[in-house]
Amino acid sequence: MNKLESFQAVLFDLDGTIINPHEGIINSVLHAAKKFGFKEEDVESLNTFIGPPLLDSFRERYQVTETKAYEMIDEFRVYYADKGIFECYLYPGVEAAIKHLYQHQIFLSLATSKPVGFANQLLAHFNLDKYFSFTAGALMDGKRTDKKEVIQFALDQIPAFEKERILMIGDREFDIMGGQHHNMKTAWAKWGFGSDAEILPLSPDFIFNTASDMIS
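Above: the chain sequence. Below: its structure as tokens.
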């Protein structure tokens, strides 16, 4: 038995864990920024948009009001829904790992700050939807974007498993802190966008350097 087969359920983050959404998210941010008159000189620093709720990211990056941030999110989604959503790719080994867990009767759910509709589109696009029993995600009106709230929603919907036998896998501090908030085991997907400085002080229960490590 490998290290994950003792779990009853595994909650997966999406961006930075299952897919690399870099191109689509950055292009969507640039579209919104240009629309509102912001010029970006340091495009790579926009990686901070991958993972956290968009409202927080737009407010912090452009120092705008909450109302203006929501307007920028709407413009972000204009590009994202049309093109950006599919400007992404699966991380190597992820599909095989998900399939392996599914075949071992482990309950799989998404726990993402991405809106549920977009998340389900991506699962279907990559033919992964058949493995997941549930998608916990954000609402389009900006509600349920905090990862703690997303995980709580997932826990409310899935079977009543023992907390210590549910694992949260993600690449950013929000994923690890969210899982720990609910007394779950946590795993860092190190291939994503989190850094050692961000994640190691949180002491996740597992660190996976590659997706294949999840089932080796």
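The chain is about 40% helix and 15% strand.
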